C-alpha cells in the first residue's frame, strides 16, 4: 500500500513539474500571421525560412496566407487580419499619403529586383523592345509595382506605353495569365512560375526580364503597422533574423537544393521547373542577400512611381523604413 502511494505521489509530482514547463514553452512560442501578396517562387527565401525551421528556431509559429493583390494584402494588415505583410513597398507609401494614424513600416526586404518577365505569344529568336510598338500588351494592375516597373522599362526603350501600343491593365491580378491563355494580347507581363509554365506548354515564350532592365528596387518587403512593431519589438527582430538566415541559406545553396526545399509550396509544379525558375532569379540577383532596405533602392522605387504618375508624395527613407532591426540581426 505504501509502495503504491509512493508511486502515485511520484506520478503526481512529475505532472506538477511538467505542466509549468510546458506552459512556459507554450508562452515562449509567438504566433505570427503573414499575408503574402501572391504565391511565387520569387519568394523562395520566405518558404525556406519556414521549411528549414529558421522561424521555429526563433520561437515563432508562422501562419501563412496568400492574399492575392497589394490592395487586399494591405487591407488585411490594416484590419489586423494579419500581423506582417509581404508586399511591394509602394503600398506603404500609399497608406502614408492617406495620413494614416498608424503607418506601415518596411523592416525586412526579401526581393531586390522586379520579378516579372515579358512573355510573347509567338516565338521570337531575335527580340528587340521596339517589337512591342503597335502590339497589344497585357500589363499588370494600375498602381502596382509590376505595372509601374513595366511602364518604366518601356519608357527606357523609348516606348510610350499609352500611345505606342494598346495597353490593357484593367484585368484583376489573379486573372491576367488566364486572359492571355484565352487569346488576349500579343505580349504579357508575368510572374514565375506562370511564365515558365506557359513556355513549357507552348502558350508563350519568355523574351525579356523586367528585373534585369529596371535595376535594384525594394520590390517585395516584409512590413507591419508601427503599433505592432512597437508592441512586439522582440518578435519582429526574431522574424527578421529568421529571414536573414534563410537569405544566407539561399545564397549559399544550389538552385536544385532550394527547389527541393520550397517544392511543398508548389505541388502542381515539376521540380525541374522550380529549379529553372530559382536559377533564373538567382542569376539576375532578385533574391536580397540581407534584409536591409537601403536609401538608394528606396529612392529608385519613388523615381519609378513618379515616372508612372503614381507617387502621391515623396517620403523620406527614415519615415517608412526601419533598418535598425535588419542591421541588428546581421551582427
Can you describe what's shown?
- Keywords: Signal.
- Its main location: periplasm.
- This protein is an alpha/beta fold and 331 residues long.
- It has two domains: 198 residues, 3-Layer(aba) Sandwich (D-Maltodextrin-Binding Protein, domain 2), CATH 3.40.190.10; 99 residues, D-Maltodextrin-Binding Protein, domain 2 (3-Layer(aba) Sandwich).
- Helices cover 47% and strands 16% of the residues.
- It has 16 helices and ten strands.
- The protein has a five-stranded mixed β-sheet, sandwiched between helices. It has a five-stranded mixed β-sheet with strand order 7-6-8-5-9.
- Strand 6, helix 6 and strand 7 form a beta-alpha-beta unit.
- Helix 2 packs across helix 11, helix 2 crosses helix 12 and helix 12 crosses helix 13.
- The longest helix has 27 residues.
- It starts with a helix and ends with a helix.
- The N terminus is likely disordered.
> In terms of per-residue confidence, which ranges show pLDDT below 50 for 5 or more consecutive residues?
1-26
Task: Note the gap between the termini.
Answer: 61 Å
Domain unit count = 2
What kind of sheet is the major sheet? Answer: 5 strands, mixed
CATH class of the largest domain: Alpha Beta
How large a portion of the residues is in β-strands, by DSSP E? 15-25%
- Average pLDDT figure: 90
Count the helices. How many?
16
Overall helicity:
40-55%
Number of strands: 10
Shape: globular
Structural class: alpha/beta
Strands of the biggest beta sheet: in what spatial order? 2-1-3-10-4
Q: Oligomeric form of this entry?
A: single chain
CATH topology of the largest domain: D-Maltodextrin-Binding Protein, domain 2
Q: What's the architecture of the largest domain, going by CATH?
A: 3-Layer(aba) Sandwich
Subcellular location: Periplasm
Pfam families: NMT1_2
Organism: Robertmurraya beringensis
Main location: periplasm
Amino acid at each position: 500500500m505504501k509502495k503504491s502511494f509512493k508511486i502515485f505521489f511520484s506520478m503526481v509530482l512529475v505532472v506538477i513539474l511538467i505542466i509549468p514547463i510546458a506552459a512556459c514553452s507554450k508562452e515562449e512560442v509567438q504566433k505570427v500571421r503573414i499575408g503574402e501578396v501572391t504565391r511565387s517562387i520569387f519568394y523562395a527565401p520566405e518558404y525556406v525560412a519556414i521549411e528549414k525551421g529558421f522561424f521555429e528556431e526563433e520561437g515563432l509559429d508562422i501562419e501563412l496566407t496568400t492574399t492575392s493583390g497589394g490592395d487586399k494584402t494591405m487591407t488585411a494588415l490594416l484590419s489586423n487580419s494579419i500581423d506582417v505583410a509581404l508586399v511591394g513597398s509602394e503600398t506603404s507609401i500609399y497608406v502614408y499619403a492617406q495620413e494614416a494614424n498608424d503607418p506601415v513600416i518596411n523592416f525586412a526586404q526579401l526581393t531586390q529586383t522586379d520579378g516579372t518577365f515579358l512573355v510573347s505569344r509567338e516565338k521570337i529568336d531575335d527580340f528587340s523592345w521596339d517589337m512591342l510598338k503597335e502590339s497589344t500588351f497585357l500589363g499588370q494592375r494600375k498602381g502596382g509595382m509590376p505595372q509601374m516597373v513595366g511602364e518604366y522599362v518601356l519608357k527606357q526603350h523609348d516606348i510610350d506605353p499609352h500611345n505606342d501600343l494598346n495597353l490593357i491593365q484593367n484585368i484583376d491580378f489573379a486573372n491576367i495569365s488566364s486572359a492571355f491563355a484565352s487569346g488576349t494580347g500579343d505580349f504579357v507581363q508575368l510572374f514565375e512560375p506562370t511564365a515558365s509554365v506557359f513556355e513549357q506548354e507552348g502558350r508563350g515564350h519568355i523574351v525579356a526580364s523586367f528585373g534585369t532592365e529596371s535595376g535594384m528596387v525594394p520590390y517585395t518587403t516584409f512590413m507591419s503597422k508601427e503599433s505592432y512593431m512597437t508592441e512586439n519589438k522582440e518578435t519582429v527582430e526574431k522574424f527578421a533574423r529568421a529571414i536573414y538566415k534563410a537569405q544566407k541559406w539561399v545564397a549559399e545553396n544550389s538552385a536544385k537544393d532550394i527547389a527541393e526545399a520550397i517544392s511543398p509550396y508548389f505541388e502542381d509544379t515539376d521540380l525541374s521547373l522550380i529549379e529553372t525558375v530559382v536559377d533564373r532569379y538567382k542569376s539576375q540577383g532578385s533574391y536580397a542577400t540581407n534584409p536591409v532596405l537601403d536609401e538608394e533602392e528606396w529612392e529608385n522605387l519613388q523615381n519609378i512611381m513618379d515616372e508612372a504618375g503614381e507617387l502621391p508624395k515623396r517620403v523620406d527613407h527614415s519615415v517608412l523604413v526601419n533598418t535598425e532591426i535588419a542591421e541588428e540581426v546581421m551582427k
